[in-house]
Write a structure and sequence with these properties.
The chain is an alpha+beta fold. The protein has 2 domains: 2-44; 59-167, DNA Binding (I), subunit A. The protein has helices at 31-59, 61-74, 76-96, 103-111, 147-153, 158-167, and strands at 2-3, 10-11, 16-18, 26-30, 123-127, 142-146. The strands form 3 sheets. Strands 1-2 form a two-stranded antiparallel ribbon. Strand 1 (2-3) and strand 2 (10-11) form a beta hairpin. The longest helix has 29 residues, at 31-59. It is elongated, with a radius of gyration of 24 Å.
């Protein structure tokens, strides 16, 4: 048994984290008190931390891309079943309901700029309501996004995606 220096309660050693800074090898605060301390610290410096992380992402963009590429190559076989499952769901959806998108409609969509950033390069089609979430492959559900915006959006709606970008400090 050990007494927590923060809450003053006597608890078993399993309730304390390990450390090699002290002779006993056990921290002086219990895990719940340490967790609370970490949460309070995060609340205090949240804005500073988000800003720092956004700057780091901008400065190390190429390095991060390379790390992600290596990780994908390394874990290719591990991720393949999940990728195949997602693709088969998408293919079933597309094949079950056929919608005709006329060439002139496709031209109109591809000639419009990215809805988010305004870029006119690397255009790609995106579904407003993703196919994986019940959206349809029809003209009313298709918008134009540049490739980088489309890839970062994943299977989220535009609103969810913009909120997630705002949370991590990108937007």
């Amino acid at each position: 048994m050990r007494t927590c220096t923060k809450c003053g309660l006597e608890k078993p050693y399993s309730q304390f984290g390990k450390t090699d800074r002290v002779k006993s090898g056990v921290r002086s605060r219990c895990k719940p008190c340490e967790s609370k301390r970490g949460s309070e610290r995060y609340r205090r410096i949240k804005d500073k931390m988000l800003k720092h992380n956004a700057e780091y992402r901008k400065q190390n963009h190429e390095r991060r891309l390379e790390i992600e590429r290596r990780s994908r190559l390394k874990n290719k076989e591990k991720n393949r079943p999940a990728k195949n499952a997602r693709q088969s769901v998408r293919n079933r959806k597309l094949n079950s309901e056929e919608y005709v998108i006329l060439p002139r409609e496709l031209d109109k969509i591809y000639n419009s700029p990215c809805l988010v950033c305004g870029s006119i390069e690397n255009q790609s089609l995106d579904h407003v309501i993703p196919l994986s979430r019940g959206g349809r492959h029809s003209v009313g559900n298709i918008i134009t996004l540049c490739l980088s915006c489309n890839v970062s959006k994943h299977a989220r709606t535009l609103t969810e995606w913009k909120l997630s970008k705002r949370k991590i400090g990108v937007d």
